Amino acid sequence: MSDWSAKNPYMTHITENYILNGEGSRKETRHIVFELGDSGLDYKVGDALGVLAENPPHIVDELIAVQGWDPEMTVTTHNGERSLYDALKKDFEVHLANKKFVQSLAEKVVSSGMKISMSIVARTRNESSWSATEDQQAPPSLRPSMPSDDPAAQVEAITSDTKAIEDYLWTRDYIDIMREFDVKYTPEEFFELAARLKPRLYSIASSHDAHPGFVELTVGIVRFEYNGRARGGLCTQFMADEIDTSGAPIGVFMSPTKSFVLPEDKDIDIIMVGPGTGIAPFRAFMEQRVHDGGGGKNWLFFGDQSEKTEFYYKDEIESWIDGGHLYRFTTAWSRDQEEKIYVQHRLKEHGAEIWEWFERGAYFYICGDKTYMAKDVHRALIQIAIDHGGMSEDDATHFIEKTMMREEKRYLRDVY
Ligand SMILES: Cc1cc2nc3c(=O)[nH]c(=O)nc-3n(C[C@H](O)[C@H](O)[C@H](O)COP(=O)(O)OP(=O)(O)OC[C@H]3O[C@@H](n4cnc5c(N)ncnc54)[C@H](O)[C@@H]3O)c2cc1C
Ligand SMILES: NC(=O)c1ccc[n+]([C@@H]2O[C@H](COP(=O)([O-])OP(=O)(O)OC[C@H]3O[C@@H](n4cnc5c(N)ncnc54)[C@H](OP(=O)(O)O)[C@@H]3O)[C@@H](O)[C@H]2O)c1
After folding, report:
1. Could you identify the atom of ligand 2 that is nearest to the CA of residue 332?
2. What pLDDT score was predicted for residue 145?
């Protein structure tokens, strides 16, 4: 076994990187393949891959320009001595501003006694140019109203409560804020405030038995735009835009799971619910079940906005169905009709059959959005136990949360 880790990642490259969406999609979901080369890295289905990204060069350049810093100067960070440029590119999350930085404005604004740029006040008074697509997560709300042109009062309004800071930060990064308040920091001051760059985890979408020497991911690229500047997610943009298939190095490590695993007994049936990028581990599960053989039936619930543009891995899914490996495939295309159809609606429609599978000892897996989807699916499972298991609400909740999830460990989640 290898000892690659977040602190000591294996430097590899991406061999395939393509968009899974059809033309006209509102999303950019990619299939990304990494070579494992001589790393000795191994993985099982259900594991996640850790990826170490860097900040986009245009953000680093703009930050240096706004602050008037010398990119060549030598600085010391938690990763040792390096040029300021490298420190900003690799050591800190400079693409999204944080609360600590906003709180630091109070001192900067008072001590400099400066006046906020009038053009920016005019713009922000009309509320910021929220221009991410309607399909991306909406901001919690737009900017708190500005009480006056006095920067100290403005900082006071922004930092007055957690929600106001969150609202403010949603549409601004460091560059926007530094410009808005015309504040200057030394690199050392900035390093004290900015968050250290962290790796991102991705559910592995391949079985190592089916793809020896490679690891594959299904990645939703995060892109948005505010104040006339294209912005987005650190790691997803790094993989899509900067690395792509250029052969440039990118650091990875394995994050093994103890719980999100296939049943040891290959004759046990499994139900997999994975809308959107949640399909990732279930592509891996299906590849593994096909490789391993065994008599367990597989039922996949998948969905996303539209069948035309989001039917990820269509050919593979159809070949599993044709080959008799995927016993049931149930889809929920949310925007192909007037009313939203989500996976939990499909689960309830098939409640009687799902209950039969549960009674026969089937495992239930869910992957994808933690905030809304996983909670709604959880409630749907309790409802199925009430409707088809004849249980009271308390008993149904106990069965789903205690019996299936904790005791029998056959309701397993990989949600984010
Ligand atoms: C165990 C696990 C498995 C995962 N598996 C997968 C997977 O298989 N596929 C996958 O795609 N992801 C997966 N993720 C999520 C992944 O780790 C990253 O969180 C995701 O890719 C975003 O990373 P990023 O660096 O691109 O974005 P970040 O730089 O982390 O930025 C994301 C942040 O940007 C902000 N933001 C987003 N949209 C907007 C907007 N419109 N306006 C303003 N701000 C906005 C939000 O604060 C959001 O939290 C998984 C996570 C975990 C924990
Ligand atoms: N900007 C961002 O940061 C950003 C953008 C996209 C996704 N994400 C996050 O990335 C993860 C995966 O995103 P993804 O693009 O793969 O898929 P996703 O956004 O989770 O969407 C997949 C499908 O789930 C549907 N859906 C929405 N709300 C649901 C609910 N309450 N219950 C069940 N289904 C629901 C969506 O429908 P509709 O879209 O038609 O409602 C869509 O059909 C999630 O954690 C998501 O929150 C972040």
Report:
1. 43
2. 52
Q: Is the CB of 313 under 6 A from ligand 1?
A: no
Task: Please check whether residues 210 and 295 belong to one and the same domain.
Answer: no
Alpha-carbon gap, residue 332 to 345, rounded angstroms: 8
Domain match, 189 and 211 both: no
Statement: residue 374 has pLDDT above 60: yes
How many A from CA of 161 to the centre of ligand 2? 28
pLDDT tier at 309 (50, 70, 90 boundaries)? very high
DSSP one-letter string for 43-86: --TT-EEEEE----HHHHHHHHHHHT--TTSEEEETTEEEEHHH
Q: Tens digit of pLDDT for each residue in 313-340? A: 999 999 999 999 999 999 999 999 999 9
pLDDT given for residue 130 in this prediction: 36
Per-residue pLDDT tens digits for 203-244? 999 999 999 999 999 999 999 999 899 999 999 999 999 999
Does the reported pTM lie above 0.85?
Answer: yes
Is residue 59 within 6 Å of ligand 1 at its C-beta? no
- Listed ranges 94-103, 104-113, 140-149; the one with the highest mean pLDDT: 94-103
The atom number, within ligand 1, closest to the CA of 220 reads: 11
d(CA 171, ligand 2 centre) in Å: 20
> 294: CA distance to ligand 1 center in Å?
36
Same structural domain for residues 66 and 23?
A: no
What would the two tokens of residue 35 be?
């070579």
Residue 143 has pLDDT above 50, yes or no: no
Q: Are residues 295 and 396 in the same domain?
A: yes
Instruction: Please tell me the distance from the alpha carbon of residue 137 to that of residue 343, in angstroms, as a whole number.
Output: 19
Q: Are 171 and 139 in contact (CB under 8 A)?
A: yes
Residue nearest to atom 9 of ligand 2 (CA): 369
Nearest CA, atom 19, ligand 2 = 276
Q: How many domains does the chain have?
A: 3
Among residues 10, 18, 15, 13, the alpha carbon closest in space to that of 219 is found at 18
Give me the domain span that covers residue 104: 57-193
Both 44 and 61 in one domain: the answer is no
* CATH code, 148: 1.20.990
